[in-house]
Amino acid sequence: MAGSGTDDDPSWPDKRQLDNCRRCPLWEHATQGVPGEGARTASIVLVGEQPGDEEDMLGRPFVGPAGKLLRTLMKEAGIDAATAYITNAVKHFKWEPRGKRRLHKTPAQREFDACQVWLETEIATLAPHVIVALGAKALVAVTGRRITIAAGRESTLVREDGTRVVATFHPSAILRAPDHDRRAELREIVRADLETAARLAKKSVPRPVSDRRVAAR
Ligand code: URA
């Protein structure tokens, strides 16, 4: 699974491949590509939107404030890091300057589309039992459906390759919540959704290897 593929033949999105990716212009202002991270036998894949400032500097996903919260909530929900893989729909940090700070800027749909091949390669190779979409942008990338997180949470979401999808709020929505009550409410929702994912992952029967590289969508 090690990344022997080229940008035209993405066998696995490893660091070198992502650093060399020119499928969209985001590489120009990012420090580096940020690959997913976690167990190659993961039964749960968690997908965020794009790396943030700290992730861009360190080259690792979800290591900043939102990532720390996500990892705490995963632990509370009983998701063992050894059974999980964490990645993003877009692998380069898109930002705009605000004084000395680099502010997160939501990638354009064409940038999500350009990066889709890397995400699909990760999903097809890992063949997880469950994918957790963190936020609406990740939900579109994972399901191809433009629905809100609220609607996604009320539906049974299944990709064309048969993988169950659990929609939940992005941990940064908890951090940005306007007051303590909303923060506590969102935190509880995300924790409960992660518990659902853990339960689904335990119940699922692994798909046979021959069935794993099913094209999504
Ligand atoms: N937010 C994301 O969606 N992904 C990260 O890696 C960090 C913050």
Structural class comes to: alpha/beta
Distance between the termini: 23 Å
The CATH architecture category equals: 3-Layer(aba) Sandwich
Main β-sheet, in a few words?
Answer: 6 strands, mixed
Q: What is the helix/strand order?
A: HEEHHEEEHEHHEEHH
Question: What's the short version?
Answer:
This protein has 8 helices and 8 strands.
Characterise the protein shown here.
The model is unreliable at 209-217 (pLDDT under 50). With 217 residues, the protein is an alpha/beta fold. It has one domain (22-203): Uracil-DNA Glycosylase, subunit E, CATH 3.40.470. It is built from eight helices and eight strands, in the order H-E-E-H-H-E-E-E-H-E-H-H-E-E-H-H. It is 39% helix and 15% strand. Residues 48-52, 55, 61-62, 64, 66-67, 88, 172 line the site of uracil (URA).
Task: List the main descriptive attributes of the protein structure presented here.
single chain, 217 residues, alpha/beta, Uracil-DNA Glycosylase, subunit E, two-stranded antiparallel ribbon, disordered C terminus, binds uracil
Write the topology of this structure.
Elements lengths: L14 H5 L17 E2 L5 E5 L4 H6 L6 H12 L7 E5 L6 E4 L2 E4 L4 H18 L3 E5 L1 H8 L5 H6 L2 E2 L5 E5 L2 H5 L4 H24 L14
Parallel strand pairs: 2-3, 2-6, 6-8
Antiparallel strand pairs: 1-3, 4-5, 7-8
Bound molecules: uracil (URA).
The site of uracil has 13 residues, from helix 3.
